[in-house]
């Protein structure tokens, strides 16, 4: 009976997804609450549809916001011209709190950093062509947008092709 | 007032990061596992996400005037769903899923993994951030050329 009683709860995957969807809808409604024009930024209210949570778009907004003094062509979305959406910062904070509280923080050996760097560049480029990440695609599909359904179809084909390659590689020879 | 958006997304990000570290879910693995092993564990994340968003949109659409353009296919501008845009979306989705599966995780999973000390994910994130500059310099020109073909 000397074992310490520790609350170990695992959140199920569908519950996490459901909360993400609800929070994104809430964030979208907050965008629509904003005034129409702020400090010379016309069309401030006109946030893109289903912009509540997006791994690519909010990263792009932050990077553009920092880089726009160097490159004039890098323009963030109108909603984050003055102060960008800080989803990424919050995400890193939340995940770090969780990693510390579950004691799952351990530095692992890096095997192939160059390949990971190239994958990151390629994924960012294709995400920019698509204009979304899988999460925003799901949100846009809930917003009933035809582009989202086409993107999901492309995503399924790409996932199947890549898993065929992975299977072949795992098969040896 | 201009801080509202940033604060709201910051709080949403903290909650989402906590949840994703706990549930260990991934959005691109949902498609991969479903078509590879018929495993629906991560597919539930995507379905739950779409369901939650739909319920939220419907609530705000019904009880307030915030979601004025909710079913987007009724309120689209003319020419928004033209054939070249759809082809670009398909190409983007295809390449995105292909390289995400090879990199073993969607960007959200990689952000969460980077906070637990995964070196691969940290280099992936460096590539992801510099990929945005790469897009503005190279890929956007190619996409504009493609759109000019039609």
Outline the secondary-structure elements.
The complex is a heterodimer of chains A (173) and B (150).
Chain A: H1 13-33, H2 55-67, H3 87-101, H4 113-130, H5 134-142, H6 146-170
Helix pairs in contact in A: 5-6
Chain B: H1 3-23, H2 28-37, H3 43-63, H4 72-75, H5 83-102, H6 107-115, H7 119-148
Radius of gyration of chain B: 18 Å
Report on the biggest sheet of chain B: none
Termini Cα gap of chain A:
53 Å
Question: What is the mean predicted local confidence, pLDDT of chain A?
Answer: 82
Shape of chain B: globular
Helix percent band of chain B: over 70%
Secondary-structure element order of chain A, N to C: HHHHHH
- Shape annotation of chain A: globular
Beta-strand segment tally of chain B: 0
User: Distance between termini of chain B?
Assistant: 43 Å
Q: How much helical structure, as a percent, in the residues of chain A? A: 55-70%
> H/E series of chain B, N to C?
HHHHHHH
Question: Which parts of chain B are unreliable, with pLDDT below 50 for 5 consecutive residues or more?
Answer: none
**Largest interface, chains and sizes:** A-B, 123 and 111 residues
Kindly estimate the percentage of residues of chain B that lie in beta strands according to DSSP: under 5%
What does this protein structure show overall?
The complex is a heterodimer of chains A (173) and B (150). With 173 residues, chain A is mainly α. Chain A has one domain (13-170). Chain A has six helices and no strands. In chain A, helix 5 (134-142) packs antiparallel against helix 6 (146-170). The longest helix of chain A is centred in the last third of the chain and has 25 residues, at 146-170. In chain A, 50% of the residues are buried. Residues 1-7 of chain A have low confidence and may be disordered. Chain B has helices at residues 3-23, 28-37, 43-63, 72-75, 83-102, 107-115, 119-148. Chain B has a domain at 77-150. Chain B contains seven helices and no strands. The model of chain B has no long low-confidence stretch (mean pLDDT 85). In chain B, helix 2 crosses helix 3 (43-63). Chain B is mainly alpha-helical. Chains A and B meet through helix 1, helix 2, helix 3, helix 4 and helix 5 of A and helix 1, helix 2, helix 3, helix 5 and helix 6 of B.
């Amino acid at each position: 009976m000397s074992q310490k009683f520790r609350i170990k709860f695992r959140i199920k995957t569908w519950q996490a997804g459901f909360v993400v969807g609800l929070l994104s809808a809430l964030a979208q409604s907050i965008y629509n609450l904003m005034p129409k024009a702020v400090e010379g930024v016309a069309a401030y209210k006109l946030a893109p549809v289903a912009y509540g949570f997006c791994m690519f778009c909010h990263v792009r907004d932050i990077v553009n916001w920092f880089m726009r003094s160097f490159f004039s062509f890098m323009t963030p979305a109108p909603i984050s011209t003055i102060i960008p959406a800080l989803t990424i910062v919050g995400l890193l904070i939340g995940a770090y709190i969780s990693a510390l509280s579950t004691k799952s923080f351990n530095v692992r050996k890096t095997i192939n950093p160059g390949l990971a760097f190239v994958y990151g560049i390629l994924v960012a480029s294709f995400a920019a062509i698509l204009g979304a990440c899988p999460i925003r695609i799901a949100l846009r599909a809930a917003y009933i947008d035809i582009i989202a359904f086409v993107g999901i179809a492309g995503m399924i084909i790409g996932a199947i092709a890549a898993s065929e390659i992975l299977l072949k590689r795992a098969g040896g020879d | 007032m201009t801080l509202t958006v940033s604060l709201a997304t910051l709080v949403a990000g903290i909650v989402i990061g906590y949840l994703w570290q706990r549930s260990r879910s991934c959005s691109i693995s949902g498609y991969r596992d479903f078509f590879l092993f018929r495993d629906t564990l991560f597919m539930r994340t995507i379905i739950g996400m779409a369901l939650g968003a739909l319920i939220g949109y419907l609530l705000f659409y019904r009880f307030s005037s915030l979601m004025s353009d909710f079913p987007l296919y009724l309120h689209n501008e003319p020419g928004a769903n033209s054939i070249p845009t759809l082809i670009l979306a398909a190409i983007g989705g295809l390449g995105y899923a292909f390289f995400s599966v090879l990199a073993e995780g969607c960007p959200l999973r990689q952000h969460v993994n980077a906070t637990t000390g995964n070196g691969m994910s940290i280099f992936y994130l460096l590539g992801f951030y510099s990929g945005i500059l790469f897009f503005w310099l190279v890929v956007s020109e190619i996409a504009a050329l493609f759109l000019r073909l039609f």
